[in-house]
């Protein structure tokens, strides 16, 4: 089966986010009332697997080894079947 995966990678809450702080500051200077900003990554991929469990396993391995730094980042993903 083919699956579309949407992977969201974000910094752990305990990790400082200088890019988010810079964006928050710029938004405030533009008169937007923003309480906080955190910057992350978004990845889309299409993969083949025999079932959703195998697709999830593949995504966990890919995220742990390449897409995210597990020391400072969290990730989550959404899977949907492609016809």
Question: What would you note in describing this structure?
Answer:
- 34% of the residues lie in helices and 35% in strands.
- The chain is of the alpha+beta class.
- The chain has a single domain (2-82), classed as Mth169, Chain: A, CATH 3.30.1280.
CATH topology-level fold name: Mth169, Chain: A
Main CATH class: Alpha Beta
Structural class of the secondary structure composition?
alpha+beta
- Average pLDDT, rounded to a whole number, is 97
Biggest sheet strand order reads 2-1-3
Task: Outline the low-pLDDT stretches.
Answer: none
Strand content: 25-35%
**Oligomerization state:** single chain
Counting DSSP E segments of at least 2 residues, the number of strands comes to: 3
């Amino acid at each position: 089966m083919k699956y579309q995966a949407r992977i969201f990678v974000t910094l752990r809450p305990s990790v400082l986010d200088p890019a988010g702080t810079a964006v928050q500051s710029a938004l405030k200077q533009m008169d937007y009332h923003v309480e906080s900003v955190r910057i992350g990554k978004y990845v889309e991929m299409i993969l083949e697997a025999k079932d959703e469990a195998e697709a999830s396993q593949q995504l966990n391995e890919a995220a742990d080894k390449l897409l995210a730094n597990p020391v400072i980042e969290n990730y989550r993903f959404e899977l949907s079947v492609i016809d």
